[in-house]
């Protein structure tokens, strides 16, 4: 199977054949964007200082080395739990035109709706690989909102084949975490019934 690489700017048609469970890699612009940045845009109505249309964000709080003269280097960049941004993500996708939202763990109905309506993806970067992820960042092009501190600043990164990224919500709103819950709960009930028949004191 060929390696699937998406390059920014990403268009709707680039996502039409990508399904939950697929593994992709990203080349182009990836911007770190966490809780406070989401809150500033959605709740405080403060425009983002970077254009995200067709690009990707990463729910991440990187460790960055200051090289002086406005030059920076990513030391470590691990994913933050995406569910923390759940209440903002639908509006965030709508307002920014972002196409890829990368983080850790799953997201819910709000993000499903945003991905389906505006043709975007949520992807999971495997936790525990923050130093490896940093090797895929070729350059920090810009940084914005430094007043928020290193983890919450908007670090505009140029990446090459950043991944692996596992598609958890596709552009049709399918959610692999929710589908797995249904399947796992079904298996749990089957096993519970089987064990209950053999070990009567459970009931």
Descriptive account of the structure:
The protein has 203 residues and is of the alpha/beta class. The chain has a single domain (4-174), classed as Fe-S hydro-lyase, tartrate dehydratase beta-type, catalytic domain (fumarase, Alpha-Beta Barrel). Helices cover 30% and strands 30% of the residues. It is built from six helices and nine strands. It has helices spanning 12-15, 35-42, 86-96, 109-118, 130-134, 176-198; strands at 4-7, 23-32, 56-58, 63-68, 71-76, 100-103, 121-124, 137-144, 154-169. It has a five-stranded mixed β-barrel. The protein has a two-stranded antiparallel sheet with strand order 4-5. Helix 2 (35-42) packs across helix 3 (86-96). The radius of gyration is 19 Å and the shape is globular. 38% of the residues are buried.
- Span between N and C termini? 49 Å
Q: What's the CATH class, please?
A: Alpha Beta
Q: Approximately how much helix is present in the residues?
A: 25-40%
The tally of strands reads 9
Order of helix and strand elements from N to C terminus: EHEHEEEHEHEHEEH
Beta content: 25-35%
Q: What fold name goes in the CATH topology slot?
A: fumarase
Spatial strand sequence of the major β-sheet: 2-3-6-7-9
Radius of gyration: 19 Å
Main sheet specs: 5 strands, mixed, barrel
Pick out the low-confidence regions. Answer: none
The CATH architecture is: Alpha-Beta Barrel
**Average pLDDT:** 91
Q: Supply the helix-strand structural class.
A: alpha/beta
Number of DSSP helices? 6
Shape: globular
Provide the domain count. Answer: 1
Classified in CATH, the superfamily is Fe-S hydro-lyase, tartrate dehydratase beta-type, catalytic domain
Family: Belongs to the class-I fumarase family.
EC number: 4.2.1.32
Domain Fe-S hydro-lyase tartrate dehydratase beta-type catalytic: 6-179
Subunit structure: Heterotetramer of two alpha and two beta subunits.
């Amino acid at each position: 199977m060929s390696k699937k690489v998406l390059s920014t700017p990403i268009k709707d048609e680039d996502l039409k054949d990508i399904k939950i469970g697929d593994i992709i890699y990203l080349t182009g612009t990836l911007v770190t964007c966490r809780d406070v940045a989401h809150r500033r845009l959605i709740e405080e109505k403060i425009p983002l200082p970077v254009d995200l249309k067709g690009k990707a964000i990463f729910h991440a709080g990187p460790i960055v080395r200051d090289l002086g003269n406005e030059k920076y280097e990513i030391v470590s960049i691990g994913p933050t739990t995406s569910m923390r941004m759940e209440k903002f993500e639908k509006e965030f996708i709508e307002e920014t035109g972002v196409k890829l939202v990368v983080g850790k763990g799953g997201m819910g109905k709000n993000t499903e709706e945003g991905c389906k309506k505006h043709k975007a993806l949520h992807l999971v970067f495997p936790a525990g690989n923050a130093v490896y992820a940093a090797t895929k960042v070729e350059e920090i092009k810009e940084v914005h909102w430094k007043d928020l501190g290193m983890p919450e600043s908007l670090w505009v990164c140029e990446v090459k084949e950043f991944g692996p990224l596992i598609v958890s919500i596709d552009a049709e709103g399918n959610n692999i975490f929710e589908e797995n819950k249904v399947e796992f709960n079904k298996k749990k009930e089957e096993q519970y019934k089987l064990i209950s028949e053999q070990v009567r004191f459970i009931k």
